[in-house]
Every structure is written in C-alpha cells, then in structure tokens.
Amino acid sequence: MDFEVEGEGSSFLPRLRSLSHLGFPWLFDKNKLLLWHNFIKRFEPHLKDTEEVDSFYFNLLLRAAKKWDRQNPKRVAVESYIELLDFEGRLYPEENCYICEQRIEEEISLMQSFKPAHPSCIYSAALPTKKILDFFASKKTVFLEDHEVEYLFEIVMKGL
C-alpha cells in the first residue's frame, strides 16, 4: 500500500489520504493467490508470541511475492522456507537420522522443519540423499524434480 498521512501529530489517529494498493500481477490468478494465502497463513502461528518481528520476515515475503509470478510458487515457497530455517538456526543439514541417529545412506525422508530421517523411521516417501543435501547447501530447488518439490512443499504446509 502507498498512502499519505494527514493530520499527523494533531490528533490521536491520523487519516490516510491518497491510498493506493501496490499489487502484484499474480493477484488475479486464483491458483497462485490460493498458494500464497496458504503459505503466508503459516507465519501467523509461527510469529504469534513475538513482540518485535525482525525485518527479515518482511523482506523474505516481499522477495517471494516478487518471484511468485515468474517462478513456480511451490519452488519459491520451499526456497523461502529453507532460508527461514537457516536464519532462525533451525536448519539441520546432518547426514544422520533425527530419530535413530544412524547415518542416512542413499535415501532420505524429511520431517517438519526439514529434519532428516530414514524413510523406515518415519514411514514416509524417500528422496535421493545427495539431492537433498545439495538443496540444503545451495537453498535452491533448480536441481530438484517437480515431484520432489511437491514433497517438500507438503512439509512446508505442515507449519513453520
């Protein structure tokens, strides 16, 4: 939004004038708008008890919104999520299972917050370990297949 403030300092609540919405071209695409709504809905419970929200979160969402129309929105959401995990110090790029603490070999599954596990430990679908560890290092989904991005997006939708 863009606006001008009228009566600032003279009253308790100033008025907003010349209000205009600075939107994004994808706002009229129902599918992209629904994906966006579901993505940002995850931030409310995550930041609920925060007294002061760091500008990182605003900048993360702004960068994502700018890419939403040009790239696959699910890829943008997954890349934003891993960036958020890295910022918060919750990225777990280990090669050991979060459940049994044994080394993960060729196939990996991910839990919420992209915590790695053996597919047999969490009864989940498997992905190639090398691809996921490369994704953790680069924070880019460019080398992942669409079905792998879909799997990661479903993890994001479970909550931040």
Which CATH top level class fits?
Mainly Alpha
What structural category arises from helix and sheet content? alpha+beta
Uncertain residue segments = none
What is the annotated CATH architecture? Up-down Bundle
Q: Please indicate the percent range of residues in DSSP E strands (runs of 2 or more).
A: 5-15%
- Annotation, overall tally of beta strands: 5
How many separate domains make up the residues? 1
Order of helices and strands: EEHHHHEEHEHH
CATH topology: de novo design (two linked rop proteins)
Average pLDDT metric: 89
Instruction: Please describe the biggest sheet, giving its number of strands, its sense, and whether it closes into a barrel.
Output: 3 strands, antiparallel
Instruction: Compute the number of helices.
Output: 7
Q: CATH H-level name... which superfamily?
A: Recombination protein O, C-terminal domain
User: C-alpha Rg, in Å?
Assistant: 19 Å
Q: Shape, please? A: elongated
Strand order, biggest sheet? Answer: 4-3-5
**Alpha carbon gap, first and last residue:** 26 Å
| Percent of residues in helices | 40-55%
